[in-house]
Amino acid sequence: MPEDVEGMLDSMGFEADIGLLWDSMSAFATNDVETGVSASITVNDGQERRGHIEATVDAGPSLASSVSLGATAAGQMVTMRSEDREPLQHYLSTMVQFAKIRSSAADNIYCYIFTNMGLTHAPLYESILAWAALHLAHVKSSTTADAETRYQRASALLFDDLDAAGHVELTLVTVWFLLQYELFSAKGVDGFIRLLSYAADIVEGVFQVGHLSDIKQQLGPVGVRVLMWLSAYDGRAASFGNPCRLLRCLKMHPSVYNIIDNHGQGTSVDPMRAPIEFATAELRACLRLALRLNILKGSCLLLGRWRDDNMEHDAAWAALYSSLQTIKEEVEDPKVPAAKLAMRVAEGDMNVPTAANTLEFNRMQLLATYYSTIVLYMQHCPAALPTEVTDSTLADPSWPSVRDCAARIIRLSRHVALSRPNSPQAIWPQILFQAGVETDDPIYLSWVLGAFAQAEAWGPNLRKTRQLLERVIEVRRDLKAPLDIPTLMDGMGGPFIL
User: Fold this and answer.
1) Distance of CA 310 to the CA centre of its chain
2) DSSP alpha helices (H): ranges in 347-401?
3) Distance between terminal CA atoms of the chain?
4) Are the beta carbons of 94 and 140 closer than 8 angstroms?
5) In this structure, what are the phi and psi dihedrals at residue 78, rounded to the nearest 5 degrees?
């Protein structure tokens, strides 16, 4: 095997008990391997999915050699080309940092996805490389042609996969990485919405099965996590005409919360399986709360687009208000130490230690998302609802004001940025942009703009988000009029997902 390919494979850090039984690759330990020699590699990811890989090395005098991995489990051929080496290394060294760290730097779900899923499913493998290549081009200030080619190849494989519903978990993870590409490129919303619609087709089909055990098996532990992430993206696109079918489906099938609980009962001590398990009740509670907040946030945006003066519309707002009041008690629960710490940060307590563990990080993000949802509610909800609809006074809820919510989001964001410096986890683009738009404090606004400027190395979308915020500030100062963000985007090259 050529040294470049061998080094690429070595850099993946395989261990026999987590996926590839690498000892069966001994035939490829030297460079004098004959063309066409193949060896068997067994895949066992610890779930109920086993496959068999035939690895064939096309040896030659140039760097054009490749390793083809054909997995019978997924029915897709994965070909490792020599030109994949750089984006592969970039993914494993840099892009995995975008995954939320659960307990240590080695405990990373993006590493798990690549070694246990990406190597046996071509659409996923290609989507991972497309995303990595796009970020690599951004870092090097080079052309994105290679990334675009990889993206087109990955999307074609995804949409042409006739058995996509047969391996739901792999399909949803593939959609996720293609959405990451769309988010990074910040060039329109059509591709983003198309991918979400495709994911909704798959998920609706899963829940039509009706049996909890079957749904759990089809989604898998990684699929459940990705489904929560996708629900957040579904809501983000609501302002651009996305019908939020995925959120509607999840709202109609609350059994998804039981699936979260069931997948959280893992007992494996294998550190490579840790990223996909929720071993504690606290972590499972965070995932449930995140999914519920995503649904509520998407509902605010959808209802905001629905401008009708009728009882059904008013009743929907009243129900949403009730849900936000209920979840407030859980997000701010003082009996949960991590939630109590997050509240201290939000309220401006300067004596909170900078370091934040995984649970504290999750709780701070949940609280920021909650305040973001409150802002949306107060912006879009009618000033008052008829008493026939609700006995509550929705015109003056017991919540912080919009300005106070923005300040709390910024305090939480600042604390996270201090606890995770030089990391893409240190910035929440959509929530922080929303806070920057709503704050009237020049010091806070200056910090937000600086945070976006500092984070620009992590993606071209962050530069565009900063430029959009600067444009918002300019328009608000000059016109003193309500802001229409999508319209402002049209004047900056077109809409994009924050």
Assistant:
1) 36
2) 358-380
3) 43
4) no
5) -105, 125
Whole-number Å distance between alpha carbons of 126 and 117: 12
> Bigger pLDDT: 307 or 144?
144
Local confidence band at 452 (pLDDT 50, 70, 90 cut-offs): very high
Place of tokens 């918002």: 472
- 218-233 confidence digits (pLDDT tens): 888 888 889 989 999 9
Count of residues in the chain: 498
Angle between helix 122-140 and helix 109-116 axes, rounded to 10 deg = 130
- Asked whether 219 and 259 are in contact (CB, 8 A), the reply is yes
List the strands of the sheet with 50-57, edge to edge.
Answer: 38-44, 50-57, 66-71, 76-81
> Which tokens hold the place of 436?
């920057």
Pairing status of strand 76-81 against strand 38-44 = unpaired
CA dihedral 109, 114, 118, 124 (to 10 degrees): 60
Handedness of CA 307, 311, 312, 316 (dihedral sign): positive
* Bridge pairing between strands 50-57 and 66-71: antiparallel
Site of tokens 């054009």: 64
CA separation for the pair 220, 225 (Å, rounded): 9
CB contact set of 106 (below 8 Å; sequence gap of 6+): 271
CA distance 222 to 219: 7
Q: What is the pLDDT of residue 52?
A: 38
d(CA 277, CA 494): 40
Strands 76-81 vs 66-71: parallel, antiparallel or unpaired: antiparallel
Cα–Cα distance measured from residue 130 to residue 152, given in angstroms and rounded to the nearest whole number: 9
Rounded to the nearest 5°, which phi and psi values hold at 390?
-150, 150
> pLDDT tens across 278-309, in order?
557 787 888 889 989 999 998 888 887 766 66
Find the largest Cα–Cα distance for the chain.
82
User: For residue 250, is pLDDT > 80?
Assistant: yes
> What would the two tokens of residue 65 be?
């050699």
Q: What single letter denotes the amino acid at residue 283? A: L
Q: What is the pTM of this model?
A: 0.82
Residue 80, exposed/middle/buried by CB under 10 A (0-12, 13-18, 19+)? buried
Closest CA to 248 of 267, 227, 234, 262: 234
Whether 330 contacts 289, CB under 8 Å = yes
Backbone torsions φ then ψ of 82, nearest 5 degrees: -60, -30
Distance CA 368, CA 448 (A): 14
Separation CA 115–CA 188 (nearest Å): 31
- d(Cα 302, Cα 289) in Å, to the nearest integer? 20
Number of helices (H), then strands (E), in the chain:
19, 4
- Using only C-alpha atoms, the chain has a radius of gyration, in whole angstroms, of 23
Q: Which tokens belong to 119?
A: 């190597």
DSSP-assigned letter for residue 482: -
